[in-house]
Structure to design on (558 residues):
């Protein structure tokens, strides 16, 4: 990380012995890692496992902190004996697939590295997606690609939902960081501190750490760029499909109080939801006691219908301590090389499972209904274009005047070409998460992609994509001999277009000059639907999403 250069200390043998990383993982020189699954970290001895199928070493479910509800994380108490790091740890408690699962005590992480003797490897710390309400470190496991990127991969579980974010005044009884309500960010910062303290034991370079995340994890990464809490905690950043979204604290308090009020009435504390909401907005110790007494299962069930809308589950609060009150308009960024990667059809998954289309899409009837298909195509096309911009070019435009490090933008188009991937193009195209099948086998999206990634072209595209990541992790520059040049973004709007034919990769430098206004004009000019239907779709399907500020402003002005 950003610190003084390493100092090589030469001396007697006793000093050399003291410099060894630990008793179970002694090293003969600074570039060698003893490929052992038994290590000693700051909290005690651990034992991982070898994955011989992928030729990697894994240590799973390692506790990196503990935290009482709505308080800052604290260091793990040292354990005696050897911690079994061969199984995934608990996931953060959450509402997933209609059921509450996980634990309120789930601050753990996974470490995966090549089964080699190489030390001082680049480190990538990954934050999973799930709207900061669901998900786990297992989303992308790392085992199938760490050899390709030659890095140590760390994947983090952190608090989610109303347990990971809560802005209510009654909880502001701690430090300024705790009072921010951004508990998930406190967890992530603590995980990075753990990495700095321990990653050399796993053969990683603590001075070459990249923070990466997908979807909500990518938005968290973007938020850390403006957070004083994260200054110097990492050296590069990658946001996969994660734009710049923050919440106003006062508005968020109102939404949280509205969401929790029914529980207050159910428990007989107040007679009406109106009275309950007013009470929840006070600073009283009685409110704090009540909130801390609600079961985690009930809290995890709140606001589960957010569907990438901050108005339902607001988080990442502009509190003035963890996130500046001016948000991304701040003049002070944690200025590190930044990679922004997006699919070109980012809204397709959300369109397909929106209430308007979900049943017909799932049954297949949507594709036999010409009018309904036209509606789906409209929201998929324009929602995808706006979402793509928000994830990449619009984010770069927002920060570029205050940012000196290089920004690299990649736009994945694979899946949109009906001649190459007819089934995928008809349904999801280059969907939210399209990068993942290029990294992970088996893919989480296996039922979506079918055999679309089983071609020579996708194999080459995936290999090139991993090569770009490898070089970016190592140096902050994704370019290398044999790869199409990935130009850093400037006012000329350079992006790397990533695609493939059946038999070859189709990767080229391009320019994305679109603006949200351009897309709104195209929507207005679209004659595939009536004006009445377009307005209905704009205000019920596309409205209020991460990317839809331009749409919302249009109708607010009417």
């Amino acid at each position: 990380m950003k610190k003084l250069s390493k100092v090589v200390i030469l001396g007697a043998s006793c000093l050399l012995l003291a410099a060894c990383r630990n008793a179970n993982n002694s090293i003969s020189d600074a570039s060698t890692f003893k490929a052992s699954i038994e290590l000693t970290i700051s909290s005690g001895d651990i034992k991982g496992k070898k994955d011989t199928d992928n030729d990697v070493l894994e240590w799973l479910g390692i506790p990196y902190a503990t935290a009482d509800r709505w308080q800052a994380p604290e260091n793990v108490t040292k354990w005696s004996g050897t911690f079994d790091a061969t199984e995934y740890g608990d996931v953060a408690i959450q509402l997933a697939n209609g059921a509450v699962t996980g634990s309120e005590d789930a601050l753990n992480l996974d470490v995966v590295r090549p089964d080699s003797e190489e030390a001082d490897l680049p480190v990538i710390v990954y934050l999973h997606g799930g709207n900061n309400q669901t998900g786990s470190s297992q989303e992308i496991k790392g085992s199938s690609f760490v050899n390709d990127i030659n890095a140590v991969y760390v994947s983090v579980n952190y608090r989610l939902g109303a347990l990971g974010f809560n802005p209510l005044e009654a909880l502001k009884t701690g430090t300024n960081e705790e009072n921010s309500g951004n508990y998930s960010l406190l967890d992530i910062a603590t995980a990075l501190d753990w990495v700095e303290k321990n990653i050399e034991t796993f053969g990683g370079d603590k001075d070459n750490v990249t923070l990466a995340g997908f979807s909500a994890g990518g938005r968290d990464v973007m938020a850390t760029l403006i957070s004083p809490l994260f200054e110097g905690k990492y050296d590069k950043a990658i946001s996969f499909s994660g734009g710049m979204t923050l919440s106003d604290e006062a508005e968020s308090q109102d939404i949280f109080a509205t969401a929790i009020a029914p529980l207050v009435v159910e428990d007989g504390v107040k007679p009406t939801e109106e009275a309950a909401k007013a009470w929840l907005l006070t600073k009283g110790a009685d409110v704090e006691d009540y909130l801390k007494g609600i079961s985690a299962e009930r809290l995890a069930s709140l606001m589960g219908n957010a569907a990438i809308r901050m108005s339902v589950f607001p988080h990442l609060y502009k509190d003035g301590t963890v996130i500046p009150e001016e948000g991304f308009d701040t003049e002070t960024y944690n200025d590190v090389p930044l990679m922004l990667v997006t699919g070109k059809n980012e809204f397709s998954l959300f369109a397909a499972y929106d209430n308007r289309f979900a049943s017909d899409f799932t049954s297949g009837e949507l594709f036999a209904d010409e009018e309904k298909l036209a509606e789906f195509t409209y929201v998929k096309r324009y929602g995808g274009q706006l979402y793509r911009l928000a994830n990449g070019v619009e984010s770069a435009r927002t920060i570029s005047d205050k940012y000196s490090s290089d920004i690299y933008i990649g736009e994945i188009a694979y899946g949109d070409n009906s001649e190459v991937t007819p089934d995928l193009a008809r349904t999801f195209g280059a969907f939210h998460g399209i990068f993942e099948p290029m990294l992970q086998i088996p893919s989480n999206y296996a039922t979506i992609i079918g055999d679309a990634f089983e071609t020579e072209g996708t194999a080459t595209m995936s290999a090139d994509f991993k090569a770009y990541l490898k070089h970016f992790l190592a140096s902050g520059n994704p370019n290398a001999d044999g790869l199409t040049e990935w130009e850093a973004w400037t006012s000329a709007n350079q992006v790397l277009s990533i695609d493939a034919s059946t038999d070859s990769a189709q990767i080229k430098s391009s320019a994305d000059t679109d603006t949200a206004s351009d897309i709104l004009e195209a929507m207005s000019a679209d004659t595939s639907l009536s004006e009445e239907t377009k307005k209905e779709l704009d205000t019920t399907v596309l409205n209020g999403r991460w990317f839809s500020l331009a749409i919302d402003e249009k109708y607010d002005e009417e």
The mean pLDDT is 93.
